[in-house]
Structures are given as C-alpha cells and as structure tokens.
UniProtKB/TrEMBL annotation:
The gene is Pgghg. SUPFAM superfamilies: Six-hairpin glycosidases. Catalyzes the hydrolysis of glucose from the disaccharide unit linked to hydroxylysine residues of collagen and collagen-like proteins. InterPro entries: 6-hairpin_glycosidase_sf, 6hp_glycosidase-like_sf, Glyco_hydro_65_M. Residues 283-489 form the Glycoside hydrolase family 65 central catalytic domain. Keywords: Glycosidase, Hydrolase. This is Protein-glucosylgalactosylhydroxylysine glucosidase. GO terms for molecular function: protein-glucosylgalactosylhydroxylysine glucosidase activity. It catalyses: (5R)-5-O-[alpha-D-glucosyl-(1->2)-beta-D-galactosyl]-5-hydroxy-L-lysyl-[collagen] + H2O = (5R)-5-O-(beta-D-galactosyl)-5-hydroxy-L-lysyl-[collagen] + D-glucose. One of its GO terms (biological process) is carbohydrate metabolic process. It comes from Pampusana beccarii (Western bronze ground-dove).
Length: 672
C-alpha cells in the first residue's frame, strides 16, 4: 500500500500491510515493540542458555486495537517521525476517534497510548469505541507473579527462566500498566475526552514505580505526549540531513535515521546502561526471530558511524557496551586457544559467543577488527582520552591486538603472516585462508593499537608492529585487484559487500584504478537479493570515483529492501531475513552521509569531497560533530559552505580550519 503523505517526515496510509512484520516499531533505548504486537522487550534481558539465548518476551498491554462498532468510518494510519508517534484515526459522520502510541523518548522505561473521542458538532448521543487486545499477563520466558496495585496500575514481576551462562544471573522484570477496558464511551453532552494508558517496565520495582509515577504526573498536567514530542524535537535539533532530491529518497533517508535514533540512549545521560543494538532492534528478537536479538558487527560497522557523526555521547555508549563485555571476549579467545580478546560473532548479555551455529562463531573473526575500527573512529573524532585511559578502552584495544597476533601464523614460503581457516563477510565461503577483508581489518587494528600506545607513552610491543607490517593482504598484481581470499577465482558468486569494504570504511590505500577494478570485479557476482547494506557500499565506491550514474544505479537497488508505507527495511529483497533491518538502514545512511559528502574520519582531520548522483542536487547536514564542535555543511553541485554552530568547551590543540588539499588554502573556522 502506498504512502499518501507528501511530507518527508510523515508516513501515512489508509490500510496496514498484510504482513504484521512490516508494521512500524515503537522503541526507545530501553523498550521496544511492534504495532499491535502482544509482546515487548526490555533491552539487555535475555532468556536461554548459550546459543538458545533470546530476548525475553514481556506481555504487552499496548497491543490494543481500536474499533467503532456499527459505524462507517474512514481510516488513516500515520507514523510521524518528528514526534515519534503512531496514530490510527477513525473518521465517522458523527465522531472522530484517535489512537496514539509511543515509546517515551526521555522517560525510557515508559510506553503509552491514548484514545481520544471527539464528537461532531451536530451529534448528541453517546459514542463508544471498542478496544480489542490479545494481552494476557503471561510469558514463555519469565516466571511472572502478581504484586500489589500501584496508583491504579496492575503490577507483575518475575525472573527469566534460564541464564545465558550456567550459574549466571537471571534478570528480573517489573511491569506496571493501566488496565485496558473493552470499551470506552464518550457520554452524551460531552464534546471530547482523552483516556491515557501507561506501561512502565524496568529491572527494578523502584524504577518501574518512579517511571509510572512521573508519567501519571505528566498526564495529569496534560503534558505526557508533549514531553515526549519535545524530547524528539531536541533530538532532531541536534542532527539533520536535508536533501534536494526526490521525495522517495528523502523519505527513505528520514525513515532510516528515525529508526536508528529510536534505538540510542537519551540525550544528556552519560553512563546510561546501554545493551547494544541488534540487526532488527528492540522490537524484534523473540526466539527464532531476527537473530534472537543478538548484537553483531552490524552495530559497529553499519550503524555506529552514522551515530558517531551526530551523537558522540551515544556512540560512546555503544563502545561501553563492548568494554563491559570484555571478560566474555577474553573467554572466547581462551576457549579457542588464543591470547587476548575475541569478540563474539553474536553477543547478548555476557559477551560470550552465543551464535547457535558454531561455524560462524568460530570463523567469522573479522568482528574483532570491526569493533576496534569503531573505537578508532571514535578516538579520531572526539579525542576522548578518558574512555581509553580510565574507563577500559585501552585494555580492550590492547587485548584485541594480542588476539590478532596470536591468530597469525608465519609462512616461510611467502615470508609473511597468514590468518587461516576463516569465514569472510561473504558467508558463501568458509575455512578460507587470508580473507583480504579479515587480514586488512586485523592490520588496521594493530596499527591503531600502536598509535594509541604511542599517544599514551606506553611501549609498543614489537610483535604488534611486526604483525601489522607483515600480514598478508592478498593482491593480484597482474589483474590489479584484491582477491577475496587465497584461491578466489574471478566470477565466483559472493553473498554481500566484502572486498569493496577495503575502500570504505577501511580506507586501505589503493590507486583509483584498483578501487575501480575491485568494484567491477565484484558487482556482477554479488547476490542481487542479498543483504540490504551491500549496494550502499558499491554506491560509496562509485561516488569516490565520481562515476555518478553508476552510484545512482546502486542506490536505486536499495529500494528493493524498503517496504511501504512505513519504510521498514527487510534484510533480503525477497522479504526474508530480519525485518526493521537497521543494518541496511545504516548502510544506506552511510551512502548519503559519507558517500555524497565524501566525509572520511582520519587521524588528523575530517575530510570531505562531495559528489552527488544525478537524483540529488544538494545536501545540508546539520549537527556534524568533530572534536567537540558542531558543524553545518551545506553542499550544492557548485559549492560547499561550512558553518560552526557550536564550539568545543575546551579549545582543541590546533584551531579548527578548512583546508583545500589541492592549493593548501586555509580558512579559520570560528563559531557562527
């Protein structure tokens, strides 16, 4: 069904998708559900041992659906990304009934919905709205018990049934909710009335009661939804991307940014206990669905750069998620007979490997380098040394470097280090030697670890320098391209973006000719219906080379994974795989935020080199963060304007300036 709204920030339709997986999600940093779904999830709460661990299903009182019995009514369903609110409106001859739902953006343990009935001017009789709900206060994952009511709310609580690790903790969930009746009636003589229904979910009774009480107070003042909308307005004030281009592209960009921002910690909350972002987000992750809610490289490679560009504080929370699970990564390496820290292919509560299929957990080791690349991007963008010196960042970086050194074996024949028996990002192949992406990301990890050590005046282990210098990065000098691994034959099918990631985000030094050859070698053999993030990276490559029409054709492929009307992404173009696929959205956002602008985060600068595909004539990126400053880039085909909208509280060691590489011309950048 079509999106009938002409506003790029509003998605609206007169009917819902037949597939309930494609309904809009309602999430914040702590809670998530899908429209009309009978379960919700609390971030970080998993049930099940090892590979069976999955997001614990919490029964959802927000699953009510509104109806007007006996009335002929026009229906509209709308997601407003400005306010993070879904609304269902029934318009009949004698009344209008509106159902609003949202996950509160600042009171993150609170979700709410309201029913508003407004009588038409000529009508006088009572109006009744029916509420149908599948809600039952039971769960397959929690041992739920009923507790005493609190300020009119019902209360249940209970622990998960099975810990991830034998003898490990079993989190407790506490939920308070406003009882939902089967019907609501606007009495005769009353023009309009609004009923509010609150749900508070937390890992302690105190937090659930605090959140529910705060929600009640705001509702009594008529300010509950307004406070939520204000939090979203503040979020959008801090970042924005406006395109001069087709409405469909602008909506896709807005949708991806909205769903990703829905998943990050609230603003002004340093130290927020964050539990990572899974490919399908908090709305998904039930057992057997969307990878069980586990966290992959998707978070660090595909989502993180977009978050870092606008919200370094939220990016820091993602890194803290990895730091807090370092013990699990150390355990993973030890279990496989290696030193240091091996980050899991799939992570849940502990950081131990929870992938249900051993082949991926054992072989898809590039994830450790992907985690370190996120740390490097953050370090270069913020120069936040406190995270590394005092809060565990350095220990993580050093442990990852140790792992890579222990994972390499010396080849006397080739006089270089090999990494053997791995699965590259292209999951069509396993047990290969010298995956070019894996080896290149390992090399980058070691170089970064050495750079940080030098910055902190820590002696750099010779092993790190030697392994980084001598690890094999496969290259075919005759054909001038990078084979995916030792023994790769040109033309072999590839599942997803792999070698093309060397150019971006790895920024492996290569000539434009080699970059072109890699793109041309792998584009025709990459699965057309494969994972959604793939074509974004081909688009970035062609934008680098100023092949604008070819970039456009790659961007256009992304639309096969975007469903209407609510811009929910599916992992694969045939509709299979994860839904609300934040990974695909993250790749698409990078194609715009890093592809069209040419932004590149380096050790010494934030570089930019704009290029637009034919569909786009201009772009404004507001709230770009660099070294504590906030910048606005306004880019057209003819010029780039940079405005400093806020300066760092502490001046950088070097004044901020824009530099033209070709001429060396410099412009100082001051606030305003």
């Amino acid at each position: 069904m079509a999106d009938v709204s002409g506003d790029p920030a509003v998605f609206s339709a007169t009917a819902l998708p037949a597939d309930p997986r494609l309904l809009p999600t309602l999430t914040n940093a702590c809670l998530g559900t899908r429209l009309y779904r009978d379960v919700l999830h609390l971030n970080g709460v998993y049930n099940g041992a090892a590979g069976d661990t999955h997001r614990a299903d919490v029964p959802s009182p927000l699953s009510a659906r509104m109806g007007l019995p006996g009335a002929r009514a026009a229906e509209t369903f709308t997601l407003d990304t400005r306010t993070g609110t879904f609304s269902h409106v029934l318009q009949a001859a004698d009344c209008t009934a509106t159902h609003q739902l949202y996950a509160h953006h600042s009171l993150v343990h609170l979700m709410a919905f309201s029913i508003t009935i407004r009588r038409s001017a000529h009508a006088t009789h009572p109006v009744t709205v029916q509420l149908q709900t599948p809600f039952v206060p039971k769960s397959q994952d929690l041992d739920l018990k009923q507790g005493p009511d609190f300020q009119g709310a019902h209360y249940i609580y209970g622990q998960t049934l099975v810990p991830e690790v034998a003898g490990g903790p079993r989190p407790t969930v506490h939920m308070l909710w406003t009882p939902v009746p089967r019907a609501l009636t606007l009495p005769a003589g009353e023009r309009e009335r609004c009923w509010q229904f609150l749900t508070a979910v937390a890992d302690s009774r105190e937090e659930a009661e605090r959140s529910y009480g705060a929600g009640l107070a705001l509702a009594a003042a008529g300010a509950l939804h307004a406070s939520h909308a204000q939090a979203w307005a503040a979020r959008w004030d801090g970042c924005g991307v406006e395109l001069d281009g087709p409405l469909a592209l602008r909506k896709a960009l807005r949708g991806g940014l909205y769903y990703l921002l829905s998943a990050i910690p609230p603003q002004g909350s340093p130290g927020f206990p964050f539990h990572g972002i899974s490919p399908g987000g908090l709305s998904n992750g039930t057992r057997g669905e969307d990878y069980w809610g586990h966290v992959f490289w998707d978070q660090d490679t595909w989502m993180f750069p977009n978050i870092l560009l606008f919200y370094p504080e939220a990016a820091r929370a993602i890194l803290e998620y990895r730091i807090h699970r370092l013990d699990g990564a150390l355990h993973n390496a030890q279990q496989q007979g290696y030193r240091g820290a091996k980050f899991p292919w799939e992570s849940a509560a502990t950081g131990r490997e929870v992938c249900p299929e051993e082949i991926y957990g054992a072989q898809e080791i590039h994830v450790t380098g992907d985690v370190l690349m996120a740390f490097e991007q953050y370090y270069c963008t913020t120069q936040d040394q406190k995270l590394f010196r005092e809060e565990g960042g350095w220990e993580l970086v050093a442990a990852a470097a140790q792992y890579w050194c222990s994972r390499m074996v010396w080849s006397e024949e080739e006089r270089c280090y090999h990494i053997t028996g791995v699965m590259p990002p292209d999951e069509y192949h396993d047990r290969v030697d010298n995956s070019v992406y894996t080896n290149a990301v390992a090399q980058r990890s070691l170089n970064f670890a050495a750079d940080v050590a030098r910055d902190f005046l820590i002696p750099v282990p010779e092993e790190w320098v030697d392994c980084a210098k001598k690890v094999k990065v496969p290259f075919d000098a005759e054909k001038q391209y990078h084979p995916e691994y030792d023994g790769y034959s040109p033309g072999e099918p590839v599942k997803q973006a792999d070698v093309v990631l060397l150019g971006f985000p790895l920024m492996l030094p290569m000539s434009p000719g080699v970059r072109r050859n890699d793109l041309e070698m792998y584009e025709p053999v990459t699965a057309r219906a494969g994972p959604a993030m793939t074509w974004s990276m081909f688009a970035v490559g062609w934008l680098e080379l100023k092949e604008l029409q070819r970039a456009q054709s790659q961007l256009n492929k992304c639309f096969s994974n975007i469903t209407e009307p609510f811009k929910i992404w599916v992992e694969n173009a045939d509709g299979s795989g994860a839904v609300n696929f934040l990974t695909g959205m993250g790749g698409f956002l990078q194609a715009i935020l890093f592809g069209c602008t040419g932004f590149r985060i380096t050790r010494s600068s934030l570089r930019f080199d704009p290029a637009f595909p034919p569909d786009i004539d201009g772009l404004t990126a507001t709230g770009v963060s660099y070294l504590g400053n906030k910048l606005q880039f306004t880019i057209t085909r003819g010029e780039t304007r940079i405005r400093v909208t806020a300066c760092a509280r502490e001046p950088p060691a070097c004044p901020l300036e824009a530099v033209l590489e070709a001429s060396g011309q410099r412009w100082p950048l001051r606030e305003g």
